[in-house]
Amino acid sequence: MLRFAANLSMMYVEHDFLDRFAAAAKDGFSGVEFLFPYDYQPQEIKSRLEANGLTQALFNAPPGDWAVGERGIASLPGRQDEFKRSIDTALEYAAVIGNQTLHVMAGLIKPDQDRAQHRAVYLDNLSYAAHQAESAGLTVVIEPINTRNIPGFFLNRQDDAQAICAEVGAPNLKVQFDCYHCQIVEGDVAVKLKRDMPGIGHIQIAGVPERHEPDVGELNYPYLLKLIDSLGYQGWIGCEYNPAGATSAGLGWLKALAEQGLTTLKK
To answer: Does the active-site annotation cover 143?
Structure first.
C-alpha cells in the first residue's frame, strides 16, 4: 500500500502556508512534506500536523542563503562549520515535528571549481550528518537534481548518489529518488528503481516535462507506482509538483489510485 505526502511548498499555494495542512488533510492526504520549516516555530507546525491527523514525511536541512540562489552547502569547501550548525538546527526541528527523514542538499559547483575537492567535503559532511541523525533515529537522504531546474547542482545521477552513500557507509544515509529529475537526466526510471530500491529512502513524483500532476506527461506513473509497490517500498511518496490549476481539482490521479487499492485516503 503506497503512502502519499502532499508537498506544501508547491501544492495548495492558493492558501497561506499554515492553512495548507488542513487543505491537504481535507483532500485525503495522511502525510505532508515541504522544503523548509525555519520561518516558523517547530511547535507551531507540530500543532497543525496534530490538528489535522497528518504525519510529517520529510523536510530539508537549511540550504545556505536560498534568497541569493544557494541550493545547499553540503559540498561547499569552507562552509563545514556552517553545515554542522545547519544539521543541529534541522535535528532540533525534527525532534519536535516528528519526521524520520531529513533531506540534505548538495549545493552548486561552477565549471572552474575542483569537483574532487567538493566531493571530499561532501563525503565528510554527509558522514557527520548521518552520525548526528542516527542518534536521533533519523535517515538522511541526498537527491540527484537535474541541471535544467537547478543549473550547476553538484549531484545529478542516481548511480553517483548510490556510490556516495556506499562510500560514506552509514546505514541511515540513503537516496531521495525523484522520478521527475531522474527522467530528465537519465530516463530508464523503472530499471533504476529496481536496481537501487534497497538504497532509496524517499521517493518523489511529478509529471515530465512541465512538473505538473503526475497523470500528465511522458512518464507512465500507473506502471511506475505499481512497480514501486511490488518492490516492497515502505516509505512515503512525496507529491512534489506544481499543480496546473487549483490543487484539489487536479487530484483525480490520486483518487484513481485509491479506487485501484494502491493507496487509501483519509476520511
So the answer is: yes
